[in-house]
Each structure stands twice: as C-alpha cells, then as structure tokens.
Amino acid sequence: MVSVKSSTAVGSRRKAGPSETAASVRDVSSGGIRNTPDEMAMSGGVGVANWGKTGAQLLAAGVDTVHVGMQVYWLSPFWVEFRRFLESGKGKAAGSDDYRFVEKWSGWNVEHCATAGKGRRNYRYHLIIDGNHIWIADSQDSTKFGNVFVKFGSERLWSFVGKWGKLITSFLHRLVLGGHGRIESWHLSAVHLACDYLIPGGVDYGRFHAETVPDKMYKSLQGTEGDGRTCYLGKRQSPVSLAVYDKGKEITVSKKMWCLDLWGLDRSQVRDVVRVEARLSRAFWRKGLDDPGEVLGCRSTLSALWGLVLDKIQWRVRNGRQVNRRELHPFWALLRSDMLRLYGACADVEWRGVAGKRWDDLTYLERRVLPALVGWSELRGVSPGMSDILQDLVRFVESDPRAVECVKYRGLEMPSLPF
C-alpha cells in the first residue's frame, strides 16, 4: 500500500561550477531536452561526482515508463460515431502492407494498428498518438475493468523532463474529450524511474549480482560483455524491482539514438553508459497513491520513491561481516545522494503489504489461522478440539528453547497456562 501524508514539493538546485557552465546552458533541441537550470539540472552532464579513483558522471535522471489504466464512459450518441472511426481505421490498417493506417483526428495524427498486440486481449482497438500507445475496449462504459489503457513513449517522457504530471494528465484529458468521453477513474499501472551514469570501464556485473542484498531475493544476470549485460533484482511481477544494464550498448540495438542528445555524448562515448532503473509495478500501485498527476508532478514524491527502492535493494560490499554491517558500495551511496539532490526533500511516502487490508478478521481466521491449527493437530496427533490444540501448542513452546527464540523473534510474549 502506498500512502503520502505530505506532497509539498521541496527542492534545491545545485549551481554549476565554472567548468560546467558551458555544458549546462547549451540547448539540445533535437532531443527536446534543454540543459539549463530551469530543467532542474537533471541532464547534460551537470551531475559530476567522484567514485573511488574514477569519475562517475550523472547524465540524466527522470521517468522512463508510465502505464495508466482508465475507466471511461463514452457519451451517447457520440460513442456510435467514435466506434465507427475506430473500426474503420482498424480495417484500413489490416488491409495495408505494414498493418498501419494514419489519419487526422482531433488535431492529432492518429496511427491505427491492425491488432491489439500480445497481452491486450481485453482491448479491440490499438492507436499510436505522439509515440504513445493507446488501447481501447469495444465498450461504451467499464463496469468490471478499465476500458482504456495508455502506455506513454519513453522519448516523449524524456522530452518533458520535470513536467511529467502535466504532460500525462493533459494528454489523457484531451484523448477522452476527443471521443466525447468522461473519465470515471484512472490509476497508475506501472512506473519506471531511471538514471543514466557515464562510468569509465562500466560496472562489474558479476560482483554486483553477488553483493546486492537481500541475498534471498530473485536475481538474474543476462547478456554478454559484447552485447551488453543486464542484472535484474526482483521478479517482474514484484511490487518493487530494479534493473541495472548497459544502456549505451542497448541503444545501438533498439536504435534509440535520441538518447545521445539527452546525454550530450557522441557515439564513441556511449559504451560506458549504465542505467539504473527502479520499477514500480501494478502490485505497488494497486492500493493507495495512484493519481498520475499527484505522483509524477511532485519532485518530493519522486525522491521518496527512489529512497524506498534504494532502501529495499542495496549494493553492499561483501567483507565477511553480517549484512547490516557491510559498507554501502560507493556507487550506491552516490546514487542515493544524487537522487536526493535532484528531487529535493522526500515526501512522507510508505509502502506496505496489503493482505491485512484486503481480508477482514473472519476471512483471515478462515484462510490462515484455522488451517494452521488443523495442520498442527494432524502433525502432533492432538484431538481436534480447539482447547486441546492450543494447550499442546503452548506446552511445546515452553518446552523447546528453539520455539522460545522463534516466539521472541516475532515480537510475541511467552504464553502461560491456563488460558
């Protein structure tokens, strides 16, 4: 569950030194990124810091991925006309060589796609507008599930650095109004926060994979040195996960050459660019704060989200000590300080599991407590009476020192008989 008690934006800007002035004021128009203090000093190589004997340079930090689900009611009789427009475009796209068809609509160049694509079976229509993908269900309203899903393009998001909340809310309102609809509700489905560093020599992924904590979390190291390596920390469906990978090598494969303008680099320098990407999935946003404008329009909230992820997943130098006594790796310390410097003071953001909130007391008793007691009765050979089971459980705890430690570890007090 995500909750925010304070969303006041508190930020501080760092003044560029004499050696940085020329880089920080240049205008990179082709990428849509203005490397000026007005753009929150988040791109163009103004975040220089020392990392050991080599320099790790912060090139850019921002929001790379945003998915928004919506429940929209399309007003009558405009829905009939809007549906006819969607159906006609889909049919023309199916008959074209590249399965795409472009036409004007509501002041936009709309690209119709012949199919909705993998994983979008609930949606019949697939549009692309300004690099953003929109899926629309064949339904005038949405009583059971969202009937509109929007995936914002990364290039579009990076070109509006620092103004993501305004970009997203204005686009969604214009989209729905163009079809004469009314937004009943919306929610974030996924958000990826990213920062790119120029690290001479790159990252030792083998060491990173071995030293990240918690030790028991899911880890996966993929790729090769030539094509670029990626380390995944946490499963894709987990509420919070992290990916660290060779972004400079990845753009040569994905053809995202607009990143060169974002970083202010030429192609000869990009092989040492490393991206750290914090991924907050649908499970994270399912309960609590999920308004796109409130989350992405507040720098202090973004600072808090970075802090939450970097507290949960850490790179600690393995030195034989206990995990909580290991030193934080210099790169992780640099990353934390840079995110705080760029986004300012943190809002009061918390995340916690939602199982207790989803189930009432009776449901929790039925699904968790009673099955555990029945299992204990069968394991110990105790009669199925509730009193007999509880008495046997207490006697076992009192007689076994290991059980006593388990009880204390859970923060419980030792029981006593009779009840």
How far from one another are the termini?
36 Å
Helix content: 25-40%
Query: What does the average pLDDT come to?
Result: 78
Helix- and strand-based class?
Answer: alpha+beta
Describe, in short, the structure shown.
The protein has helices at residues 21-25, 78-94, 154-158, 164-178, 205-211, 247-254, 258-263, 282-285, 292-296, 299-312, 330-343, 355-358, 361-380, 386-399, 401-409, and strands spanning 2-4, 27-28, 33-34, 43-51, 54-74, 100-105, 108-113, 125-129, 132-136, 148-152, 181-198, 212-213, 219-224, 228-233, 240-245, 273-280, 314-315, 349-351.
Task: Explain this structure.
By secondary structure, the chain is α+β, with helices and mostly antiparallel strands. It has three domains: 211 residues, no CATH class; 123 residues, no CATH class; 51 residues, no CATH class. The protein is built from 15 helices and 18 strands. Helix 10 runs antiparallel to helix 11, helix 13 packs across helix 14 and helix 14 packs across helix 15. The radius of gyration is 26 Å and the shape is globular. The two termini are 36 Å apart. 32% of the residues are buried. The N terminus is likely disordered.
